[in-house]
Amino acid sequence: MSRVVAITNQKGGVGKTTTTISLGAALAGEGRSVLVIDLDPQGNASTGLGVMPEDRDLTTYDLLVEGADLGDCIVGTGTANLRIVTGTGDLSSADVELMGERRRLHLLADALSATTDDYVLLDCPPSLNLLTLNALTAAGSVLIPLQSEFYALEGLSQLMRTVRTVREGPNPALRIEGVVLTMFDGRNNLARQVEQDVRAAMGDLVFGTRIPRNVRLSEAPSFAQPITEYDPLSVGSRAYKALAAEMLKRHGWT
Amino acid sequence: MSRVVAITNQKGGVGKTTTTISLGAALAGEGRSVLVIDLDPQGNASTGLGVMPEDRDLTTYDLLVEGADLGDCIVGTGTANLRIVTGTGDLSSADVELMGERRRLHLLADALSATTDDYVLLDCPPSLNLLTLNALTAAGSVLIPLQSEFYALEGLSQLMRTVRTVREGPNPALRIEGVVLTMFDGRNNLARQVEQDVRAAMGDLVFGTRIPRNVRLSEAPSFAQPITEYDPLSVGSRAYKALAAEMLKRHGWT
Ligand SMILES: Nc1ncnc2c1ncn2[C@@H]1O[C@H](COP(=O)(O)OP(=O)(O)OP(=O)(O)O)[C@@H](O)[C@H]1O
Ligand SMILES: Nc1ncnc2c1ncn2[C@@H]1O[C@H](COP(=O)(O)OP(=O)(O)OP(=O)(O)O)[C@@H](O)[C@H]1O
Ligand SMILES: [Mg+2]
Ligand SMILES: [Mg+2]
Questions:
Q1: Alpha-carbon distance B140 to B156, whole Å?
Q2: How far apart are the C-alpha atoms of A104 and B105, rounded to whole Å?
Q3: Would you say B217 and B145 are in contact if contact means Cβ atoms under 8 Å apart?
Q4: What is the distance in angstroms between the Cα of A55 and the nearest Cα belonging to chain B?
Q5: How far is A11 from chain B (nearest CA, A)?
């Protein structure tokens, strides 16, 4: 039984892709089989996992718009137990191209019905468009990376409204996996204030693990490696391993 | 003759909104009249300039989708010479709602034909969707905030391709105003490497002024003030004033 987790937040630059890659690699390192779906036209998760643009043959676009078979779209990465369906620029026209498709919200859910991986992580673009709605419809739960900044907090209520709409509509089983604080700098008053506000508002839905700001995390993609391989002893790597452990425990793997 | 500048980059969280607000306030401080158009469904520029969600009556959505009159949509801010047309969540369905509209790329250009402000700054969402294409079609030039990080650099070529398509299509007059490095930390190898790569690739198109990472910039929105009022002596405020001066000089105002 695969656990499909949508990693989403319409606020840009909050660490969605970094969380997808790092958490994915940490879960794979614990022996779980992990499939990443790159739903972002920027294709950052694909680049960060080492699949160059010229090597992206059948992609998420083919899976959703052309009805390609999931097995044909999956490619390996340099990390054991971690595979990916890559993202490309043509995804940015998906909203318009799928306009008339009756099952346009369910295309990803239908495509993923055949997976056998322990975890499927969906990296979403920074918007609440059809691609993100497909992710929320296909997912069993949603993981929300939250930068401890003012604008990021402002967007949270809009995101929660969208999650509620999906739960009342195409995906009644959608749960909240949790909120994970990213790029956290405890010396900064604003960050501490945001943490306090979020824990007050969402309680146990906020993971105990906070991901600190760590330059090694922003360097890793230029070496096309996840942090767990680029610098396994870094604070960033250790934090994502702790997040993975927290998640595995909640799911009864340990 | 208004100068309409689209502030855009599909990469999320690179400082588009912060640049729109801070540069806008700095230009207004120099006596220029400035109009901000908030094209982002998140509405961050509207919040950052102090217009709360419940006070957003006629908005960018009304301007584009309902054909409201520009004059009716403009509201004042707490900053002299700086006004705004606010953004709201209903913008996120604009792509689909304007699907059948023949002039759907030109709606913003048509609406702005009546402006008399010295500068019109267009804050774009983190995507290359219809809202951003409207901004690129309406603009005389495009200003690209670029975070000195690996993924941000990766997205630059996709953005330049889109600019070229708009110039070959609906807006032959579109120029590049420039690239401004944001959240720049000179102690960080990656940042220095990105700066070197960008200046090599784009030469004089890169502004001399770099915007440093400065926590006061991320605090200002929670006080609904631009940095030039929240903390006029901060490095962030001084950097955006230098950017404004550089721009005014290029445009022959000084
Ligand atoms: N904990 C961290 N410490 C330092 N840098 C980080 C951290 N997490 C992410 N970054 C960097 O910050 C930038 C934004 O992160 P990322 O691209 O993962 O966010 P995103 O939410 O996926 O962005 P988008 O909205 O564009 O999809 C990237 O350059 C990334 O390398
Ligand atoms: N120079 C800076 N120093 C420190 N923090 C900054 C700086 N510029 C922006 N920020 C903060 O970084 C975050 C991202 O900036 P901002 O929201 O302006 O980016 P954006 O490109 O508009 O994001 P989006 O893609 O979501 O529209 C915000 O929380 C902002 O306050
Ligand atoms: Mg991303
Ligand atoms: Mg913004």
A1: 19
A2: 24
A3: no
A4: 16
A5: 7
Residues B54 and A226: their CA atoms lie apart, in Å, by 43
Q: Which structure tokens are listed for B75?
A: 């509201």
- A190 vs B128: CB contact, 8 Å cut-off? no
Q: Which of A233, A225, A194 is nearest to A21 (CA)?
A: A225
Q: Residue B134 in contact with residue B175, Cβ under 8 Å?
A: no
Q: Which residue is associated with the tokens 């721009």?
A: B247
What atom of ligand 2 comes closest to residue B9's alpha carbon? Answer: 21
CB contact under 8 A, A127 and B128: no
Ligand 2: lining residues by beta carbon, under 6 Å: A 11-13, 126, 149, 151; B 12-18, 40, 44, 126, 182-183, 211, 213-214, 217-218, 221, 236
| Partners of residue B181 on adjacent β-strands | B146
> How many other CB atoms sit within 10 Å of the CB of residue B173?
8
* Residue carrying the six token digits 């942090």: A227
The Cα angle at residue B142 between residues B193 and A46, in degrees rounded to 5? 50
- B123 Cα to chain A: minimum distance (Å): 13
Residue B80 CB-density burial (10 A; 0-12 exposed, 13-18 middle, 19+ buried)? exposed
Of A2, A84, A77, the C-alpha closest to A40 is: A84
Cβ–Cβ < 8 Å for B137, B21? no
The total number of residues written for chain A in this structure: 254
The amino acid at A232: P
Residues of chain B contacting residue A125, judged by C-beta atoms under 8 Å apart = 126-127
Structure letter (DSSP) for residue A149: S
Per-residue model confidence as pLDDT tens for chain B (254 residues): 899 999 999 999 999 999 999 999 999 999 999 999 999 999 999 999 999 999 999 999 999 999 999 999 999 999 999 999 999 999 998 988 998 899 999 999 999 998 999 999 999 999 999 999 999 999 999 999 999 999 988 899 999 999 999 999 999 999 999 999 999 999 999 999 999 999 999 999 999 999 999 999 999 999 999 999 999 999 999 999 999 999 999 999 96
DSSP strands (E only) in chain A: 3-7, 34-38, 75-76, 82-85, 119-123, 141-147, 175-182
Q: In this predicted model, what pLDDT tens digit does every residue of A132-179 receive, in sequence order?
A: 999 999 999 999 999 999 998 889 999 999 999 999 999 999 999 999
Residue B67 neighbours by CB distance under 10 Å: 10
| Three-state secondary structure readout of B197-253 | HHHHHHHHHECCCCCECCHHHHHHHHHCCCHHHHCCCCHHHHHHHHHHHHHHHHCCC
Flag if B190 and A222 touch (Cβ within 8 Å).
yes
* Residue A172 neighbours by CB distance under 10 Å: 8
Q: Which residues of B touch A221 (CB under 8 A)?
A: 150-151
Cβ–ligand 1 distance for B127 under 6 Å, the answer no
- How many Cα atoms within 13 Å fall on the side-chain side of residue A229? 20
